[in-house]
Specification:
The protein is of the alpha/beta class. It has helices at residues 12-43, 48-60, 73-76, 80-87, 116-122, 129-132, 152-158, 166-173, 188-192, 209-217, 243-255, 299-320, and strands spanning 90-94, 104-109, 137-142, 161-163, 180-185, 201-202, 220-227, 234-235, 262-263, 281-285, 333-334. The strands form 3 sheets. It has a 7-stranded mixed β-sheet with strand order 1-10-7-2-5-3-4, sandwiched between helices. It has a two-stranded parallel sheet with strand order 6-11. Helix 8 (166-173) runs parallel beside helix 10 (209-217).
Amino acid sequence: MKIQFAPLNIPLRRRLQTAAVLQWVFSFLALAQCCLAGYVLLCISNWWVLAALYAGWLYLDRDTPTSGGRRSEWLRNCSVWKHFRDYFPLNLIKTVDLDPDSNYIFGFHPHGVLVAGGFGNFCTEASGFSSLFPGLTPYLLMLPFWFRIPFFRDYIMCGGLVSSEKASLSYLVSAPRGGNVAVVAVGGAPESLDARPGALTLQVLHRKGFIKLALKHGAQLVPVFSFGENELFDQMTNPAGSPLRWLQDHLQRLMGVALPLFTGRGVFQYSFGLLPYRQPIHTVVGRPIPVVQTPSPTKDDIDRLHSLYLEGLTAVFEDNKDNYGVATDKHLHFI
């Protein structure tokens, strides 16, 4: 394989963009393991008392990830995220104003490999969420597993990440004064196994838990489609029924975490690596779907609202695909 090296005279701003994305990829793929290893080393060192104190803090703080987390506006507004935004670049597009007196569930599609659009738009202020949607506070839901890892949990909560447990989503969308936005990557970890350039398959037909909670709490549903999310990485071929896909599905059910075998570009060369390609991401926030609060929704209630949600999601895609490089004969495929 011929390796295409990056030129030496790349402007400093592009070097900074690459560094910003590099630290993000490291945080996503390796920081949790480093934090866990650091805590274990602390436990067996002469500083074990600090580890014991932190363990006590973990116990006392155990409900925070399901109670809105503990965000840091300083971290969300850190300049490193502007370099992260400009690497792709990343854009957040508003179609209509949203009432800050209501609570919302944003259904984010597609999941992609690393949910770059979801993180950049809703866990940082790089794309100007607060300016576009004044009075609203976004929270990106993440697998509960990650909030059990020492130190790492505190870092990710600073960006507005919270647990994806049912109790966590209910807490956010039941706020009496409104103003909360719970961002749910509806396809979840399994959808990342199908994330590759050109893919338009969404795992959403049987994902109805967020629909039920929207009805129970009267939260407005907003479909969000992130154009370019699946263009960031190539992935090893893993069709349904193949040995690789069987292994990935088995590990996902066992651990709750998907393991896509993906590749992108490197730091000093463009041929392989774990950095995403420089492909634009356009995250379009669609029109809200009005929801009438139904404390005990029936199956028909859930199915009816789910159908409306799929229609809204399809409309977001079809109305915007010509603007963002998707061929007119391409359409979403729901499974």
